Automatic annotation (TrEMBL), chain A:
GO cellular component terms, A-Z: cytoplasm
Protein name: Amino acid adenylation domain-containing protein
Boundaries of every AMP-dependent synthetase/ligase domain copy: 20-375
Organism: Streptomyces tagetis
Pfam families: AMP-binding, AMP-binding_C
PANTHER family, A to Z: FATTY ACID SYNTHASE, NONRIBOSOMAL PEPTIDE SYNTHETASE
One GO MF term attached to the UniProt entry: phosphopantetheine binding
Record-linked CDD domains: A_NRPS
Cited InterPro entries: AA_adenyl_dom, AMP-bd_C, AMP-bd_C_sf, AMP-dep_synth/lig_dom, ANL_N_sf
AMP-binding enzyme C-terminal domain sequence ranges: 434-507
One BP term from GO: amino acid activation for nonribosomal peptide biosynthetic process
TrEMBL record, chain B:
Top-level taxon: Bacteria
Record-level GO cellular component terms: cytoplasm
Leader sequence segment: none
Keyword tags: Phosphopantetheine, Phosphoprotein
Name this protein carries in UniProt: Acyl carrier protein
GO MF annotation, one: phosphopantetheine binding
UniProt organism field: Streptomyces tagetis
Domain Carrier: 11-86
GO BP annotations, alphabetical order: amino acid activation for nonribosomal peptide biosynthetic process; antibiotic biosynthetic process; secondary metabolite biosynthetic process
Length: 528, 90
């Protein structure tokens, strides 16, 4: 069973920043970015980005280069992104909210970075990478001497635009790259399908490392609108809500769990800034529609809620569903809808044959958004990009590892993962990645991590450790893990165990471990 | 709010720390919280932090940015931050 999105012709060179440059010519004085009480116009941003692009090309970092960016949200971040693209290079976001040890691990997975753009507050975090670290502020005098004109670089839709980290299948994050054509197609679809325009001002509320943040950052500039950035390294519901109230923001992209927080903030304190938005585009994890139900039913909610699905490997969003059509009585899982332009969804069995209508299978994505694959060393995950024969035509597709089906109305429904990977608050996590970090701690002989659902239906990670000496205290394990893992990868519970149960095949018996979690949580309920 | 002049900085810090700790105890659902225990080591996460941020506004009248909550992840340090922001200009 397959779903085909509308076929829409793209320009001969679907290059993302060319659309931005069109807006520079049409509305040079429009405000492009607002941040921390400052703003730049399209013309000013264009000049700064062009100068940075000239700096890159003069150093030989042009087409095909990869530029790391480790910056807090700021006007400089947008300059670095646009300048990188204009030089013909692709950027790689490094989230400065991550612990330094995690950034070191990510940098080790990103060989061949031309350089890393950082600031005085982030430079020390990325110095381990071996790549040169530069600071736009320190280079201001030099940049001012470079031409403000568009650099003459030939770029096609097949050139890479960005690469983001995603959980690999071997416990090590992998860098997955996408192409201009895919990113252009995504934003062109959003603009045309939802009528985004010069007044569709955005606010970014997600962390820089997420693939959805790349879309949230670029979409307003693709549409000629204004981008609002928060002067905050961490998601801040109070600040986000204040900005929604103060500025004419129309569109927000976020993980579902972030949307719940914003809704809770508005519900607890009153207000309608969220309800009056034009669009909220959200997804990335199993939807808890009950968290949205009251908000969606409020009479003053005029906002269209778009429940979306996609993977970083295929340029972020693949399908979209207007939640107004959702009837909790009819669907047990809120659908994620139909494909983007020039995108198809295939539900396939283990032999990559289409399943019957309504049957479950692996969700596979083909079309413009299919990315360029994982950068760097080859791993088993590269096999997820494959070409199959469909009615005599070879089709390149990506096997997402997500399980789903197409319902009677022709909408995609996602039902979870086929492998051990889990989504925790919108972030795809491979439990073996956490196991490795635990296994490196002194006093831990062996560790296993399983995902279980807590009483509220949220996925949480439970860790089991075999101590090499005496039992390890939960608080101590958390403290030490925090030095190497992002906070949302931290297990919620830790249990000391004599040995890790193994399946007959000698693999960690995750089902047996998940069983151990259940009586334990019942005990803590009765104790509490 | 006017404060009696006799209240010293230390006393005010102690009062704020007690109120912060009460909020942490409630939101983290544990009683054994020392002034220098790390929020995340205690099992806190960003969702709980958002609730604490809201509770600071409603119960202490303090608007604390999330970045400051992360930079000051102990009862002692966040109480000191709140007091430093509330202190009248010298």
């Amino acid at each position: 069973m397959s779903l085909q999105g509308k076929r829409v012709a793209l320009p001969p060179s679907p290059v993302v920043h060319r659309r931005f440059e069109e807006h520079v010519r049409a509305t040079p004085d429009a405000v492009a970015v607002v941040w921390s009480g400052r703003q730049v116009t399209y013309a000013e941003l264009e000049a700064r980005a062009n100068r940075f692009a000239h700096l890159l090309t003069a150093r030989g970092h042009g087409r095909g280069a990869k530029v790391g960016i480790c910056l807090d949200y700021s006007i400089d971040m947008i300059v670095a992104i646009l300048g990188t693209l204009k030089a013909g290079a692709a950027y790689v976001p490094f989230d400065p909210a991550y612990p330094a040890a995690r950034l070191r691990l990510l940098l080790a997975q990103a060989p061949g970075l031309a350089l890393i753009v950082a600031s005085s507050t982030t430079a020390a975090m990325v110095e381990s990478g071996g790549a040169e670290v530069i600071d736009l502020e320190q280079l201001a005098d030099h940049l001012a001497t470079l031409p403000a004109t568009v650099p003459d670089v030939h770029i096609t839709g097949d050139d890479l635009c960005y690469a983001v980290f995603t959980s690999g299948s071997t416990g090590t994050p992998k860098l997955t790259a996408v192409r201009h054509e895919g990113w252009f197609n995504l934003m062109n679809w959003l603009q045309r399908e939802y009528g985004l325009h010069r007044g569709s001002h955005h606010l970014v509320v997600s962390a820089f490392g997420f693939d959805l943040s790349q879309r949230a950052l670029m979409t307003p500039l693709f549409c000629g609108a204004t981008q609002h950035l928060m002067a905050s390294r961490n998601f801040d519901a109070m600040l986000a809500y204040r900005m929604l109230t103060q500025y004419d923001i129309r569109v927000v992209h976020c993980a579902s769990s972030t949307l719940y927080l914003l809704i809770d903030w508005e519900s607890a304190r009153g207000g309608d800034a969220l309800a009056r938005l034009d669009y909220i585009l959200f997804g990335g994890e199993a939807l808890k529609s009950e968290r949205l139900a009251r908000f969606a039913r409020r009479p003053d909610t005029t906002c269209t809620l778009l429940h979306q699905y996609g993977v970083a490997e295929c340029t972020d969003v693949a399908t979209s569903y207007d939640l107004a059509h959702y009837r909790p009585g009819e669907h047990d899982i809120a659908p994620v809808g139909r494909p983007a332009h020039n995108t198809a969804i295939h539900v396939l069995d283990a032999e990559l044959r289409e399943v019957e209508a309504g049957q479950y299978g692996e969700i596979c994505i083909s079309g413009a958004g299919v990315g360029a694959g994982y950068l760097g060393a080859g791993g088993p995950e590269n096999a997820r990009f494959t070409t199959i024969d469909m009615d005599g035509t070879p089709v390149r597709l990506y096997r997402t590892g997500d399980r789903g089906r197409i319902d009677d109305s022709g909408e995609l429904v996602v039902a979870g993962r086929l492998d051990a990977q889990v989504k925790v608050r919108g972030m795809r996590i491979d439990p073996t990645d956490v196991e490795r970090a635990l296994g490196r701690l002194a006093g831990v002989r062996e560790a296993a991590v399983v995902a279980v659902r807590d009483d509220g239906g949220d996925v949480e990670l439970n860790a089991f450790v075999v101590p090499s000496g005496k039992d390890l205290a939960e608080d101590d394990l958390r403290t030490r893990l925090l030095r190497t893992l992002p906070r949302n990868m931290l297990p919620s519970r830790f249990t000391n165990i004599l040995r890790i149960p193994l399946s007959p095949h000698g693999k960690v018996d995750r089902a047996a471990l998940a069983d151990i979690c259940r009586p334990r949580s019942a005990d803590s309920d009765s104790a509490g | 709010m006017t404060r009696p002049l006799a209240v010293t900085t230390n006393e005010r810090n102690a009062v704020t720390a007690d109120r912060v700790r009460a909020i942490w105890r409630r939101e983290l659902q544990r009683d054994d919280i020392m002034p220098d225990d790390d929020f995340f080591a205690l099992g806190g996460d960003s969702l709980i932090m958002v609730r604490i941020q809201g509770a600071f506004i409603e119960e202490l009248g303090a608007e604390v940015p999330m970045d400051q909550l992360f930079l000051n992840p102990t009862v002692g340090s966040i109480a000191a931050y709140i007091d430093s922001r509330a202190a009248p200009a010298p």
